[in-house]
Amino acid sequence: MTSNDSSLPGQPKIFAIVVDPQTPSTVYAIGRFDSPAGFPLAFLKSTDSGATWSVVSKPTFSYTSGSAALLAIDPVKTNVLYTIAADDGLEVTTDGGVTWSAPTIPKPAGSASRGTPNQPGLDGVAVDPNHSGVVYVVGGNESFHTGKGYLLKSTDFGNTWTLLTSTAGFGNRIFINPKNSLEIYGTSLSDIGCTDPNGQCGIYKSTDGAQTWTELNIPESLVQNVAIDITPGLLYAAAYDGLEDANVYTSVDGGNTWKTDFPDSTALVPSIGMQVVRADPNAASTAYVIGPSDTNIVSKTTDGGATWTAVAVLVPYQCGSQTCTLGTVIYDLVVVPQAQATGSLPAVTSVVNAAGFQPGIVANSWVTIQGTNLAPQTDDWSNSIINGALPISLDGVSVSMGGQAAYVYYISPGQLNVLAPDVPAGPVTVTVTAPSGTSASFTATASLYGPAFFPWPGNQAVATRTDYSYAVKPGTFAGLTTVAAKPGEVIILWATGFGPTIPTAPPGVAVPSGSYPTASSATVTIDNISAIVYGAALAPGSAGLYQIAIQVPTTLADGDWPIQASIGGTQSPTGVVLSIAH
């Protein structure tokens, strides 16, 4: 590796490296050069998978320890990166490393012996892979047995912070499941009730987004890192006893039980010093191990840790007239997400109302995007809503509408369902970003209103009674007894696109409890007969979902009758019916 800066000659010592999740050929690293001016630090960038590098900046902070866990990149806004510098403080860049700043982070009680005047002592940083702007930092005092361990979280790119936990012990690293942001593993987080007699805790698990933790039973007391396989429940952990016994453990049940088949007694991989394990994001049951420390050994498994193959990494160099090889010390590695072929860029073919399928967008309402190569797999946000915050990225898939991030509910190669941001009325540019790249722009029209009922089978409007029993004709759902709406009874219609509310509901979260009625009055007709509308409002606990309470006209005969709504001068699509039976 050489740089484009003549004042930084030779090969730098790399302390941390990270890959751009949106463009895997772009790689960032922090390195230190041996130059006549001393040992200057450089923030480096490669756009060709590491073949060539350029110096982006020469940060003024120092850096003495190395780990990929000390450099993190936002999953969507990849010009935002975070690092833990040698003074145990967090540094943030919002321009791809050109400039760096240290945010103010509140100091938990008992953390005064480490850190900077505006930050506590920190040991690790991690970003939520599914939520842009969500970042965690973890740290503790230098005393492993008497100091404080603490975990803090920011949801606005590090501008403000919330303390999640802080009690006796010390913090080390956290690792977030890329498929489930609620599932987080912490190493040496003894602030949740360490039972190790020496006060050194190995690994903890949270299934509620770091709100509560459970200590896992792993044979070693110190865990260097946790790697999460793409196979559900499969984990790897590099651990040691603080002395010479280092090993790699695997779990197939999410950390409840652990075993090791790692060949730590072989001559190639002796059991001395710390190790690092990294899961392959491209292949199930595949992982790599670096270590022990001060070695050039890389081991690989393709069967979930049952067997391992070890090789020595040798670097060629010129010695006289011959080419010789030299073992190099490897401290860490990053397994790059597999880039898709250029021809598989996402392409948008339509942007429509998710209920009525009419073209266009309504702010804060549901939208369906159709096309090709929109996502590498099928997924939804079931495991990605943290403290009510809706994700703007799922598995590397995000949507921009008018320059604002939409909230991504469902992804598949041919269709996305998203909640539109607060876009103004008029032409709106829509793009989809997937791991393979960003789509060409698609122009849609945003409107203030676009009412549409969600449909049930037979184009029946989704309707319930006040007790939430279905108001739908018998036989609509196999194995479920249902009763059609009756003339004169009060029912709730479920819809989207009914426009602004007073007050305005907070964006990006489930609608809080309370009343958020529509700013304009809605009307509903059934077979062209006006129904009494008691009110239209956003449904608490949901997002972009409106409930319209009506009384079914008493004059309706039995049958499937066309139903339409109107608000703000805009009518819902035709073709939707409500089944009536006395």
Ranges where pLDDT stays below 50 over 5 or more residues in a row are 142-147, 189-193, 265-272
What composes the largest sheet? 9 strands, antiparallel
Shape: elongated
Strand content: 35-45%
- Write the CATH architecture name of the domain at 452-580: Sandwich
Mean pLDDT, rounded to whole units?
Answer: 83
The number of distinct β-strands equals 46
Q: How much helicity do the residues have?
A: under 10%
Query: What's the gyration radius in Å?
Result: 28 Å
Q: Quick one: CATH superfamily of the domain at 452-580?
A: Immunoglobulins
Amino-to-carboxy terminus distance:
80 Å
Give me the CATH fold name of the domain at 452-580: Immunoglobulin-like
CATH class of the domain at 452-580: Mainly Beta
Helix tally?
0
Summing up helix and strand content along with how strands pair, one would put the structural category as mainly beta
What's the structural blueprint in terms of helices and strands?
Elements: E1 13-19, E2 27-32, E3 41-46, E4 54-57, E5 71-73, E6 81-84, E7 90-93, E8 124-127, E9 135-140, E10 148-154, E11 162-168, E12 173-177, E13 180-187, E14 203-206, E15 214-215, E16 222-228, E17 235-240, E18 246-251, E19 276-279, E20 287-290, E21 297-301, E22 309-312, E23 314-319, E24 322-327, E25 347-353, E26 361-362, E27 366-372, E28 379-380, E29 398-401, E30 404-405, E31 407-411, E32 415-419, E33 426-434, E34 437-438, E35 442-447, E36 452-453, E37 455-456, E38 460-461, E39 463-465, E40 490-496, E41 522-526, E42 529-538, E43 546-551, E44 559-567, E45 570-571, E46 577-580
Parallel strand pairs: 26-35
Antiparallel strand pairs: 1-2, 2-3, 3-4, 5-6, 6-7, 8-9, 9-10, 10-11, 12-13, 13-14, 14-15, 16-17, 17-18, 19-20, 20-21, 21-22, 23-24, 25-27, 27-32, 28-31, 29-30, 29-33, 31-32, 33-34, 33-35, 36-40, 37-38, 39-40, 40-43, 41-42, 41-44, 42-43, 44-45, 44-46
